[in-house]
Amino acid sequence: MPKNINITGYILLTVFLLLMPVYAEGDYNYRLGDVNKDGSIDIADVVYLFKHRDLDIEDGDLNADNSIDIADVVYLFVNYQKMREPIHYAQNIKITYYDEYGNEVNPYNGEKYAYKIVEDATGQRFLLKNESQPIPSWAEGKYDKVINIPLKNVVVMSSTHIALMEPLNDDGSVIGSVKGIMWGGKYTWYFDDIKKGLSDGSIIDVGSSYSPNYELITNISPQVVFVYPGYSGDAIIEKCKELNLTYFADAEYLEDSYLARCEWVKMFAAFYNKEDIASKYFTRIEKRALNVKRLTRNCDRPLVAWGKNYPTWGGTWVPRAQSYVAKGIVDDCKGDYIFKDIPGTGSECISYETFAERAKDADVWVVPSSTAWLSNFKEDHPGYENFKAVQNGRLFCLSDDYWQLGLMNTDEVLMDLATILHPDVFKGRTTHYFLKYNPNDNTAMPYTAE
């Protein structure tokens, strides 16, 4: 009898493994939509896809419905003009490429460029050029400042800036340009080159974003100070104006999808002439991220709460309906979100009572923090033990490296989020960025779907 049970179990396991989706990796040298692999996306790709459907799923399943068929041909026909643009997802990136005569070109579609004009979140316009290049007469009136690239000396405000620079650092020059970091000595760093730089003094901790050491920053004489708008960034922007320091305000955190945030790697690429590296990196992230939609396409939608109460800051911060978090839950991972009626991007501060009223019935609750900041979780969240997600063991928090490695590995973050929402689809998979949280002893562990 035991032998029969083992044989039955073996057969069932074999059938299960055969039924589990296994995706061949796509060709990340070519952008999504460039199915004929000629370096550009155009009508020729539509014709090619019509004639050839035997592609790897990541390359040919453009509408992410887990099949390559005529629907993908139609999708490409309707969307190839949009897909060929340099920026596909991010709404806040404003960058235009030009040839030497001032004609607009698209390096992400195989065209050569000579100059770039980028606009930051405050409306500043920068002409980016190589040091040896003249300032072209056709650019008059199109820019406010000129910056010689690639950058060699910068100060950054956030670890997320570093996370978007690391994928471009193939030869060490991008991170090598970082001479100062706000919060440099306060973060736990998960990038060895940053840890080394802070240790040997080649990178200086220039203080917190709330009270930067501007004497250290001015001594660095940065070509650019990378900041984010809003929060403490607005005060830094005003001080940079006062000190005549060139700043660039990036708004990646205001984007409405995980892929849009990650696509800001292309903006940083513009400052370092790393468009070719950015294209291959982002193509890999994009193609792999779409696997999440393929795997969850037939799933029911679990109700998801996302929020942490901050009594000293006046309430509970939750993602708004058009934020990248909410879109990730609803659009990428096929969940339902408790505050999809709060419009806007970014976050909203609401009363804990309002949060708890809806969160108590959610199937899954994500506390957007690591355990280092959750020592008062019980006191800050009265009644939490009665929440459905807590009682069912589906309370999660973030890993310590989420804000650094997570942004760089956006595809894995989405796969982790889908895993905690749909464990039946991802049986046996263990998460990295979303951890199962135990409020009793303030510990968290990777979650293995069962």
TrEMBL record:
Residues 153-425 form the Fe/B12 periplasmic-binding domain. Gene3D superfamilies: Dockerin domain, Nitrogenase molybdenum iron protein domain. GO terms for biological process: polysaccharide catabolic process. Coiled coil: none annotated. SUPFAM superfamilies: Helical backbone' metal receptor, Type I dockerin domain. Residues 28-87 form the Dockerin domain. It holds the Pfam family Peripla_BP_2. InterPro entries: ABC_Transporter_SBP (IPR050902), ABC_transptr_periplasmic_BD (IPR002491), Dockerin_dom (IPR016134), Dockerin_dom_sf (IPR036439), EF_Hand_1_Ca_BS (IPR018247). This is Periplasmic binding protein. It comes from Methanocaldococcus bathoardescens.
